[in-house]
Amino acid sequence: MSQQKIESLLKQRIGLNPSSVGSVTIEHAVRKRMSSGGIEDITRYVELVSESQKEFELLIDEVVVPETWFFRSAEAFDSLVRYVRDEWLLQNPGKCCRLLSIPCSSGEEPYSMAMALLGAGVPAGSFHIDAVDVSQHNLHNAKKAIYGNGSFRSQDLKFRDRYFSRNDEHHYRLHRSVSSVVSFHHANLFDTDLMRDAASYQVIFCRNLLIYFDRSTQVRAVSVLRGLLDAEGVLFMGHAETGSFLKGWHPSIADRHGERSEGG
Fold it and tell me: Where are the domains of the chain?
């Protein structure tokens, strides 16, 4: 019963479908957090994680372990450049293109978006990227902008030579010229403040998030994304997330989704 309460809490607060990660994974995460806190009674832990936002976020970090690296699915970033540089900026001279990465994990995706645009000659002042994640731990690492070898898995590492400096033997520090065009925010997709305060985005990267949701939560998530996306904007999703819940969108959105949604 206590396990079910924790699973219900995860679904209620962040939309996580327990079956997407497995009950065993959640149980292991709970046991690890209990051990870290010196808690032996799971009922007591349920009370703690229900009342403490900090503990809830620490549990999320154990349940959902991000698998990410720079320029994961490079085709998506090629499509991003074509849209922003060759279409949107030409049609909107003097305006700033707004982009969103959600969830941004430890920063590899939004920084890849920035490097792709800067490397293609897009001026830093002509775009800005908001990066959102539910994990304070992820955001802390993203803001540090220091990465180990595991974040560099693409065959072409010219971007690392151009935009990073050696921090130590095993880590690289991202140049300020890239990190300065990205702003990080602590929130999840279903936070009402996110919808209320955000203006429309011309580009949204939301890859490999919907796979953690059940059908009804996926529909709800797409509705939120639709509200955040400009009428002629572009949504990037993972291949596994291109479901029928996208039907009914404005035709230009659906067409662009088919063209530009790249898996990852």
Answer: 2-63, 74-260
Given phi > 0 = left and psi -120 to 50 = alpha, else beta, which region is 223? alpha
Strand order in the sheet with 164-168: 146-148, 171-174, 164-168
Q: Would you give the distance in Å from CA 104 to the centre of its chain?
A: 3
Averaged pLDDT, groups of 10, the chain, 264 residues long: 88 88 92 94 95 92 86 93 96 96 96 98 97 92 97 93 95 98 93 69 92 88 91 84 52 40 42
Domain 74-260: top CATH class: alpha beta
Using H for helix, E for strand and C for coil, what is the string for the chain? CHHHHHHHHHHHHHCCCHHHHCHHHHHHHHHHHHHHHCCCCHHHHHHHHHHCHHHHHHHHHHHCCCCCCCCCCHHHHHHHHHHHHHHHHHHCCCCCEEEEECCCCCCHHHHHHHHHHHHCCCCHHHEEEEEEECCHHHHHHHHHCEEEHHHCCCCCCHHHHHHEEEEECCEEEECHHHHCCEEEEECCCCCHHHHHHCCCEEEEECCCCHHHCCHHHHHHHHHHHHHHEEEEEEEECCHHHCCHHHCCCCHHHHHHHHHHCCCC
The model's pLDDT over 2-59, given as tens digits with 9 standing for 90+, comes to 889 999 999 988 888 888 889 899 999 999 999 999 999 999 999 999 999 999 989 9
**Which pair of tokens denotes residue 173?**
């520090």
Judge whether 47 and 6 are in contact, CB under 8 Å.
no
